[in-house]
Amino acid sequence: MYQFPKDFLWGAATSAPQSEGAALLDGKSPSTWDKWFEMEPELFYDGVGPKDTSNTYYCYKEDVANMKAMHLNSFRTSIAWTRLLPDGKTLNRKAVRFYRNYFTELIENGIEPIVNLFHFDMPWWLMEKGGWEARESVEHFAYYARVAFEQFGDLVKKWATFNEPLVHIECGYFGNAHWPKVRDFKRALQVGYHTLLAHAKAVAEYRKSIHGDGKIAIILNLSPVYAKSEAKADQEAAQWADLLYIRSFLDVAVYGRFPKELVTLLKEADLLPVTAQNDKEIFANNTVDFLGCNYYQPLRVQAPKNAHYPISEPRDLFNGYDWPQKRINPHRGWEIYPTGLYDIAMRLKNSYQNIPWFVSENGMGVSDEERFTNSEGVIEDTYRIAFIKEHLIALQRAINDGSPCFGYHLWTFADCWSWLNAYKNRYGYYRVELDDHFKRTPKSSSFWMADVILNNGFNH
Length: 460
Ligand code: BGP
Fold this sequence. Notes:
The protein has 460 residues and is of the alpha/beta class. It has one domain: TIM Barrel. Helices cover 40% and strands 15% of the residues. The protein has helices at residues 16-19, 32-39, 56-69, 81-84, 93-108, 124-127, 136-152, 165-173, 185-208, 232-255, 260-268, 279-285, 339-351, 382-400, 444-455; strands at residues 2-3, 9-13, 74-78, 112-118, 158-163, 215-221, 225-227, 290-294, 299-301, 357-361, 366-367, 405-411, 425-426, 430-433, 439-442, 457-458. The protein has an eight-stranded parallel barrel with strand order 2-3-4-5-6-8-10-12, surrounded by five helices. A hairpin with a 5-residue loop joins β14 (430-433) and β15. α3 (56-69) runs parallel beside α5, α7 packs parallel to α9 (185-208) and α13 runs parallel beside α14. The structure holds 6-O-phosphono-beta-D-galactopyranose (BGP). 6-O-phosphono-beta-D-galactopyranose (BGP) is lined by residues 15, 18, 163-164, 167, 221, 294, 361, 365, 411, 418, 421, 425. One of its GO terms (biological process) is carbohydrate catabolic process. One of its GO terms (molecular function) is beta-glucosidase activity. This is 6-phospho-beta-glucosidase. Keywords: Glycosidase, Hydrolase. InterPro entries: GH (IPR017853), Glyco_hydro_1 (IPR001360).
């Protein structure tokens, strides 16, 4: 029997921009996603944009009832900044009503809300002023955080500031999957710096808030980094990837400072971001109470030819490297490697002060999932059950070995919209039918998971 600790949090995660819908209704102003879709709809899979997400703005009660039927005891979503403060200053009463109703509905059904503030959805008005590149975004975010804590802090006792800050930096400033889709390493570093400063300021706001008696976290995608070989060049490349992708976030969140090696390398290359005098103190005084760890797949690294550190095209580290034992999810192309979850769990225990943490996202995206529908109309997602099981086994081993993990959230509860991929890959315990009024139907994994939760574990 794979048994989990008492009071373990079993849940699922989504985000406001990926699930709510009502993208420009009831006072909400556009985020970068809403505007980008207006400009280039053809870039979004099947032309489905951010207004066609899974409609929870209208049917959250149905979702909560389904969560209850599955025995979930926790659930994460985010607040849309552009809904709560459409112009950055004015409180939108309709948003307050919506989120209070939503969180209350969860609580009354025995499901603890875990609420995140930023899930890649930069307000358009702020993007026009430079987005995270502009220092003023830090103050705007701190104000938004303060308002959110004031309005919902009596209901919500577990908060997160950012979801996967690496992703909006990487995809927006050294890739082209997020707005403003530029490729500029120096600008990316400035964006990263301001994001983390905004995180620390939001933590400070929480601790000052009248409702600040709960806990606050950041959610990081902690994909463990593995070098291709023992060769010095590959080891160095892995160290750089780890420094940039993992430690620059984890060290700030848990220790309140950037890794020395990173600062030295950036200084030598004249790439240090612009900072202000008291920033160091802000980082140092505002470390997190707990962490969320999103884990999908590891990073396999090999040294690029003639590498000089810092490498300002970080994606060069991952190109063209075929790991012979790789198991690939054929439906999404991502590697399946449950041991990675064990490794990161033990690293948090051993190198990050035994910080309490939970799996805030893990999951398996599958395209054209309707092909697995059985004669009773249920999607038989046995591949997802196998995926979750393997990851839970790795997680349980880490917990037995002392890693202080207190929960597991699947991405996601009901299929939701995903950025440029829209509904290409489905992740939910529940199917959402876009052509049939967003109708929800449970997949096999939801029944399997309901049993796991009831027993707080499972047999083989
Ligand atoms: C994470 C994000 C989620 C979600 C998930 C699945 O990085 O936090 O927002 O989208 O990945 O990835 P994708 O939707 O790209 O398949």
